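Raw record, unedited: TetR family transcriptional regulator
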Amino acid sequence: MNGKNGKNGKNGKNEASATATSRRMQNRDRLEADIAAVAVRIFAECGYEGTSVAAIAEGAGLSKQNLMYYFPTKQELYRRVLDDVLDEWLERMSSLAQGAADGAGDPADLLRAYVQAKLRFSQEQPYASRVYAMEVIGGARLYGEQIRERVVPVLKRDIEVFESWIAAGRIAAVNATHLLFAIWAMTQSYADFAAQMALVLDRRQLLDKDYRDAGDTIVRLVLAATRPGG
């Protein structure tokens, strides 16, 4: 009887300990995500060299020492920010290959969805887009290997989709690599150069209508370039 109760008591303690550990991990994950959300804005505004750990800590409402408990160096925090950026950026790119894998997707519909997904990223995550662009423009000194390992395979997969469409006569024979580069440039410019665009349009910031108009224009350009017999 006592042994049984002792065993049950031990199990109960183990369960309570596991629950407490899980809660601590969840709280840590949440705090790290909050820190990264502040960091991406400051890195976008100030660049890597111009950003200090103290500024990020102040923005996150933490002491510098407390922040460094979670991210011991600025470079580690910067890599975490870029990991998050790349995760979401690649997720927005996944619609092309996924739709093509289903076999029923129309190339025009899939290209339209691809452009719109990339443009939504620029609208919804402008700081993320700018941090990534600044890293690439700077020669990808701190994040080049990750880009090579993660972006290149996705790009090759999407190129294979284009090549299969071309072989089947579903789209015109285009240079898929440079068409994808052009789509990236056109969509990302609405994050990286949003301030310039707003000035030209004589407004404080781009409006939802501007992004809709941009999407319509980019889609028309892409579909015109890929239209069979065009």
